[in-house]
Every structure is written in C-alpha cells, then in structure tokens.
Design goal:
alpha+beta, 59% helix, 430 residues, 18 helices, globular, Elongation Factor Tu (Ef-tu), domain 3
C-alpha cells in the first residue's frame, strides 16, 4: 500500500462513511480516557451509583434535544421504542454497571485485568453476529478479513507487553461474568442503536439513551440502597463526574451516534477498537510506558485495518423485497401518485432514494420515500414513485435496489412547498 494509493482512495471517498468512521474513532478515544484515567478513581463507590450520576448529569446536558425532536419521537413505532429500551437497559444500565464492577474488582486486586480485558473484547463478535441476524448486514468479504485482523491486533496490543498468561485468567470469578455480560450488552447495543439512528436523528437518540438509562439505574440504586451512598460523593468526585459528562459520557455518545448513523453497525464495532489503541498511546505519552515490539506491530496492524475500513470500504447499497399495501391516495392528490409498500421489516436510514424496482419481471427506475410524512403528522411510510405508469398493480412483491440517496426527509410548511421539492427530486430520474 502506497501514499499514491491512499490519495487515490481519499479522492473517491464516501464522505458520509468517512466522517462517520472518524466520529466512531473519536468517541473511542474519549472512552479510553475514561477507562484508563477517570473511572478507576470511583472504585470506592457503588458501581450503580456512579453509573446513575454520570447518566443523570449527561441527560441534563442532552435533554433539550428530546424537546427539539419531539414531533419525530412521538411517531416512532413499537419496534423503535423496543430498540431504545434495549439500548438503555443493556448498553446504558446493565453493560455500564457490569464493566464498572469488573474493573473495580481488578483495581481492588480481586482479579487480574487480563481476565476483564480478554473477555470484554468479545464485544465485536457479539455485534457482528447480531448485525447479520437483526439488521441483515452483509458486507464484502474483505471487510470481515480486516475485522478479524483488527480483533486479533487488539488482543496483542492489550497483552503484547506482559504476554497473555492463561494461568492468570480466572473464569470462575464474578468479574469474568461481569465482563462477558458487558461485552454482550455493548455489542448488542451497537446493533439496536443502529436501528434507532436509522429512524431518528443522532442528537435525540443520545438524549433518549441517557434519559431512559437514568431512570432504570435510579430504580436499581433505590432497590439496592446504594443511592444513599451519594452523601459519600465529595467535591473531587463531582468534578470527575463533570469531566466524564464532557468527555467519555454524554459528549462521546453524542459523537458516537453521529458516526453510527453514517456507517454500518458491523463497521462501528470494529472501529470502536480504536479504544485499546488510544489507551496504550495515551499511556505512552502521559505515563511514558514504552510499547513492546509486539505491541508496536499490533498497533500498526490495527491502524492498517482502520485505514482499510475507512478508505476502502463503504456503506453497502440496500436491497429488499416488500409487499404492496393500501394507501390513502395522498400522493395522487399532490399530483405524484405513489405505490405504498409494507415497511414493518425495513431497517434502513430514513430518506429519499433513487432506486431500481422490479415489478413482474420488469425493471423501473423510481424514487423511494422512507420516513415520517413531511408534515410529521403521521407515522413512517414507505412509498415508491415511478416515472412510468404501471397498470394492474395488486398485492405483488416488489424488489427494490438502491442506486443512491438523494436527501434526508424534511418538514415542509405547505403542500405547495412539498410539491416544489418533489419536482427537484424528480430530476434525478432524468
């Protein structure tokens, strides 16, 4: 791989994909600050109390985005609310409590850090499997090859100095269980988080995660009585909590969901491995701990994998089949009759797309609208506009293949403004 190759690829880069990938890596950098330098300072406090306080303070910062996005939020379907509940419970509450407990056990000397790190790094495996099963993500074989390299390099980076001594791994300790649960919780939350940002803006997604998680962990803290340890939280801990909010907490998740909206869940979980890379880099620059030759080689391999995923990979074009469903004739009244499709099983980003559609064996070029109606007065719809008239469409199954995304779904002040935008969109059909 040469500089010339990199420059050629950069010129052809999918800008949205690249920005999303870089955002994921920046969030991972902020998380490394937390794990290495901030969170260990709280090990004398109950883990659930720490998790509650960081989420409650984060929600105070992000909460206004819920009000700004309320017209969209109130129209979310049951599937999306279940995804929000999953992310809040597993990623926000359970996962954070479990990994905090695991690291506290390691800091307290009950178990080795190797036990926690080894098992927690199963996270990408859970995420890749669930992205395939839940979201139907199917990336090129080259992506999975680079993903495998990245996961392997992350292990060597973590254990390249001391070596992975299997005798130090205590699978029978509760910390091992905590680490495995955290790996599943975070991995699955990446997948269901992708489902949410497909249908909601990233700012509101981050706010909802912090809000719902705050209530869940508050209930747990009340049940365990750990909430009453808040009197032990001194000034220095409040300062650390404020630091978490504006680094690894609310800010990192805000940036992360910006990135997740633009890349696949599969790519996101691999790019999150920038966490161990940045952790050892910060350890070198701040604590002057020199990397071993094995770690340096692993760091190089990890960077190569990241570069290949950012530069050589791109978001796959969607393909799906959907059954024709009844509509209310709104498009026809506007002068742009559309075919309404069933959208219950569709997990793609909201937007207006240029597509190819196959109807009764014939290919038609058209525009696909997926999302809430432009007035935000009705739930999301999936509608296909064809330039050619197709007679006799009943309850057929129509195959849809994306050519490119044209724009996001926007809110219009009037039907006339909507019609003018539709005329602009139709230019894409030639």
């Amino acid at each position: 791989m040469t500089v010339k190759w990199i420059m050629q690829k950069l010129l052809k880069l999918d800008k949205s994909w690249a920005l999303g990938a870089l955002a994921i890596m920046l969030a991972a950098l902020l998380w490394s600050l937390d794990g290495v330098f901030i969170r260990p300072k709280f090990y004398v406090l109950p883990a659930e109390l720490v998790v509650f306080l960081e989420h409650a303070l984060g929600f105070l910062v992000l909460g206004p985005f819920i009000f700004l996005s309320w017209p969209r939020i109130r129209l979310l379907k049951t599937k999306e609310w279940l995804a929000i509940g999953w992310v809040a419970f597993f990623g926000g509450a359970l996962g954070t409590i479990m990994i905090t407990k695991a690291f506290f056990a390691a800091v307290g000397g009950e178990v080795t850090f190797a036990t926690v790190v080894l098992l927690q790094k199963l996270q990408p495996v859970f995420a890749l499997v669930m992205a395939r099963l839940v979201l139907g993500e199917r990336l090129r074989r080259s992506f999975y090859a680079w993903a495998l390299l990245a996961v392997g390099a992350a292990y060597f980076l973590a254990f390249g100095k001391t070596g992975l001594k299997l005798a130090e791994i205590n699978l029978g300790h509760s910390a091992a269980f905590y680490a495995i649960v955290a790996a599943f919780a975070f991995g699955s939350s990446t997948v269901f988080g992708k489902r949410i940002v497909n249908h909601l803006d990233f700012k509101a997604t981050a706010a909802l995660r912090f809000g719902v998680t705050s209530f869940l962990v508050l209930a747990y803290s009340l049940a365990t009585g750990s909430i009453f340890s808040i009197t032990s939280v001194g000034r220095i801990y409040w300062q650390y909590l404020a630091l978490i909010v504006f680094t690894s907490g609310a800010l990192a998740m805000f940036i992360y969901y910006y990135g997740l909206k633009r890349v696949t869940a599969s790519a996101a979980t691999i790019l999150e491995l920038f966490w161990p890379f940045s952790a050892v880099a910060l350890d070198y620059f701040i604590n002057h701990n020199v990397l071993s030759p094995v770690q340096l080689a692993a760091a190089g391999a990890l960077l190569l994998a990241f570069l290949k995923i950012v530069v050589a990979e791109k978001a796959p074009k969607f393909e799906f089949s959907s059954k024709v469903s009844g509509g209310i004739g709104r498009g026809r009244r506007l002068g742009f009759p559309t075919i309404n499709l069933d959208n219950d099983k569709i997990d793609i980003n909201y937007g207006i797309y240029l597509v190819e559609s196959e109807i009764n064996g014939k290919i038609y070029k058209g525009l696909l609208h997926f999302g809430q109606k432009e007035t935000f007065a009705e739930p999301a719809s999936l509608e296909l506009y064809l330039k050619e008239t197709v007679l006799g469409i009943g309850d057929e199954i129509i195959k849809i293949k994306e050519i490119k995304k044209i724009r996001e779904v926007k809110k219009f002040a009037s039907a006339e403004e909507l019609k003018e935008q539709m005329k602009v969109d139709l230019r894409e059909l030639g």
